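Thread: Newbie trying to understand structure tokens

Hi all, I'm a second-year student working on a class project, and my supervisor (Dr. K.) asked me to get a predicted structure for one chain before our next meeting. I've only ever worked with sequences, so writing a 3D structure as a token string is new to me. If someone could post the tokens and maybe explain what I'm looking at, I'd be very grateful. Here's the chain:
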Amino acid sequence: MIVPINEGALFRLGEVKIEGSTLFSPAQILEMLTLKTGDIVDADSLSVWFFERVAKAYGNFGYIQYTAEPELKFHLKEGGREGVVDLTVTIDEGHVFTIRSIKFEGNGSVPEHTLFREMLVRNGEVFNKELFVESLKRISQSGQFEPIDAEKDVDYKWDQKSPRLDLTIHLKKKAAESEETRNCARL
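---
Reply by user tm_fold:
Sure, no problem. This is what the structure looks like when written as tokens:
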């Protein structure tokens, strides 16, 4: 069986424009892009750039509603095998969110003040996603709880009037080891 494949034209990165950003300059945002002008365009690299790297940078400054809208303009001469793609990324930063409250559910006999000691973010501070995720890792590493997933095990709530977050962290106590498991571990 022979399957003909038409790869189409190869596109290289042309001009890149950043619009709508105020927290970071366009030059700072472009520094986060691994592709340079003239490189072969890779959709995965572009996606990682504005949906992961740039989103993470904004998230560390409290901009949890950051969005990026890419617009691609392809330029290819008739019959050409290589073209250029210009990219305009329009950024909507959203609001800066601060933490109004942090609550724990499912902590059982573990006092809240013990859990708060592991938190690298506090009430009243600008929300920092990276520090928050690191805080959850620290609680997970205590050995008392199952690993905490920042996306699945946390409720992020705010009202439409103010950008203040109420965070509820759902904890799952680790199951106690059975006597048989402890005996096997000793062998």
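A couple of things are worth pointing out once you decode it. Confidence is low (pLDDT under 50) at residues 178-183. Residues 88 and 134 are 33 Å apart (CA to CA). Feel free to ask follow-ups in this thread.
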